[in-house]
Amino acid sequence: MTLAEKAYDALRHDIIRGAFAPGRPLRLADLSERYGMGFSPLREALNRLQAERLVTAESLRGFRVAPLSLDELHDATSVRIMIETQALRAAIQSGDDAWAAGIVSSLYALNLQASRSGGEADIWTLEARHYAFHRALLAACNSPWMLEFFDRLYAATERYRIPILLAATHPAGRDVQAEHSALAEAALARDADRAAALLEEHYRKTVEHLSAVIRESEPDLLLAGAAG
Amino acid sequence: MTLAEKAYDALRHDIIRGAFAPGRPLRLADLSERYGMGFSPLREALNRLQAERLVTAESLRGFRVAPLSLDELHDATSVRIMIETQALRAAIQSGDDAWAAGIVSSLYALNLQASRSGGEADIWTLEARHYAFHRALLAACNSPWMLEFFDRLYAATERYRIPILLAATHPAGRDVQAEHSALAEAALARDADRAAALLEEHYRKTVEHLSAVIRESEPDLLLAGAAG
DNA sequence: ATTCCATAAATTTTCGAAAATACATGTTGC
DNA sequence: GCAACATGTATTTTCGAAAATTTATGGAAT
Q1: Which pick of A70, A73, A139, B130 has the fewest CB atoms within 10 Å?
Q2: Chain B residues with CB inside 8 Å of A87's CB?
Q3: What average pLDDT does this structure show over B131-152?
């Protein structure tokens, strides 16, 4: 793996997890020290991340962490619902045994991780399991473009969810595990309408919860990420 | 504008228009001579294009023009229909006078250009007008993410259409101008269902035509672009 | 003839410095 | 005081060469 690829992975990881505050300038000298490499691989990674809208760039003024906003969260969520419900329907129609097995095993791993009372670093593992489960649901949709957009939107919305996970704010009156199980069950039963409805509901609840928490108790979450 | 930005524009332009054959390696020495700059700005541009799936990259083996395939054309088209019909409905719901004016003027410019019996370079202008018209239809959808995905998919599918435009293969029994006009009319009349149906039909006809031409008369179009 | 290995050539990747530009600081004139 | 300007510093951008790796070439062994 080249240094540019390592830089891309590390930067993407750190940005999504809020190691840099949204909007904060990404100075090459700092990054060079932090990641122990020269400017060239860093700039290549930053250019990729720019194309993915995780960082912004301005001519001769360098790169910044892309900002967050409630508007973007709502936009990303509604587009996510559109893409993923369609992809889920397609996957249900054409999914084979391997697809079903992938759902079962990723749900199992997700629940197992969720049951561990989240130690510090476990949260990132849980997050990875959550991604893997939702990815597994769509895996058989047979559309590289939809899967790519799923990845893009997942990364974009993950940035909003992480600080809340860190704050250990559990959604009151909501059983996320049950939602995942019901979703998997509907998909495996090939009930496309029910699965799509559950998926949509799942995301609407999540974004409502996020909006509420951000507006009421963490109004500057959109500006200040955790320290790096 | 920095050299890296110039490199990005030039490379994107040349790749979409088929100046490099799909799958062809993009050697830095060649590109450096062609565009008159060093490796650094070229590599940055190539990394951005990689994130956009217009070029592929393999560790220590450099970059290649992304390949074309009928499967990808069909995938991109069906995702396009999903995204754009949704975006069009949203735009129809919330579009204001400026939106309507944008549709009228871009349609006018498109028809004007189409009526000029396409000289060599006019084809690219026509292509730009075509993009601008479709973009104008969606402009008021109020969703940066959908517009981004529109751009991505437009670029991806443009690659399939260009060689056919160059070959001046006009679709038999099809009046593309009339399709555009009907689409604009439905949008301006705020008839979302009709507009969405027309848009979908427009794309289905296009992809069918492309598939037929590629399969029957240009089977190796997917491999060999025009010389650069 | 064919596989294997060594060597050479071509290519990508990375660094370190130079060039270009933006940003901050302080100074002058009013 | 304060705007305009000059100067110096910080930062980005670009180049050219070095390092690392892959690909091609040619010869030896079987």
Answers
A1: A70
A2: none
A3: 98
Cβ pair A50:B48 closer than 8 A: yes
- Number of residues written out for chain B: 228
Contact by Cβ (8 Å): A90, A142: yes
CATH superfamily of domain region A70-216: GntR ligand-binding domain-like (1.20.120.530)
Write phi, then psi, for A62 (nearest 5 degrees).
Answer: 80, -160
Q: Report the distance separating Cα B139 and Cα B187, nearest Å.
A: 12
Alpha carbon distance B84, B134 (integer Å): 9
Q: Is the CB of B18 under 7 A from strand D?
A: no
ipTM: 0.94
Q: Is the CB of A192 under 7 A from strand C?
A: no
> Are B3-65 and B70-216 in the same CATH fold?
no
Q: Over the range B148-181, which residues count as b (16 or more CB within 10 Å of their CB) and which as e?
A: ebbebbbbbbbbbbbbbbeeeeeeeeeebeebbe
DSSP bridge partners of B57: B63
Helix (H) / strand (E) containing B55: strand B55-58
pLDDT digits (tens, 9 = 90+) for A96-111: 999 999 999 999 999 9
pLDDT confidence of residue B51: 98
Question: What average pLDDT score do residues A159-186 get?
Answer: 85
Structure tokens at A165: 């996970």
Tokens describing residue B193: 């269902």
| Cβ neighbours of residue B19 closer than 8 Å, sequence gap 6 or more | B13, B225, B226, B227, B228
Q: Which residues contact B123 (CB under 8 A, 6 or more apart)?
A: B165, B166
3-state helix, strand, coil split of chain A in percent (to 5) is 70, 5, 25
Dihedral sign for Cα A110, A113, A114, A120, please.
Answer: negative
- Which pair of structure tokens corresponds to residue B87? 């975006």
Q: What is the pLDDT of residue A215?
A: 82
Q: Tell me the torsion sign for CA atoms A98, A104, A105, A107.
A: positive
Nearest to A78 by CA among B149, B75, B189: B149
Domain A3-65: which topology? Answer: Arc Repressor Mutant, subunit A (1.10.10)
B8-56 residue pLDDT tens: 999 999 999 999 999 999 999 999 999 999 999 999 999 999 999 999 9
Q: Binning pLDDT at 50, 70 and 90, where does residue A222 land?
A: low
Would you kindly state where each structural domain of chain B is located, as residue ranges? 3-65, 70-216
Partners of residue B91 in chain A, C-beta under 8 Å: none
The pLDDT tens digits for B178-223 are 999 999 999 999 999 999 999 999 999 999 999 988 887 666 666 6
**A39 CB inside 7 Å of strand D:** yes
